[in-house]
Structure prediction request, 91 residues.
Amino acid sequence: MLTSVTSSDPPTVRFTNTQDLFDAINCTIGDFLTVTNVSPSQFTEIEREREKRRRRFRFRRYDSESRILTITIPTGIHEALHLELYLRYRD
Prediction:
């Protein structure tokens, strides 16, 4: 189940298993997802499964001490904004 403290906070999901996480990623409307309760070995499992599935999302940050993983999910708007920033920087 996805939860959010306020409408501006990224949705948060508690990690239970890799399949449920990928389902949550697929259902996320925004471009960020916070995942709690991720052990270092589970993080490695998520990395392997992401590569295996060729699923496009990025690990923005993982803190093994707090066991919190922040995922960036590229959306059309997200990528367009990054492209605009890149083009301004390049020019």
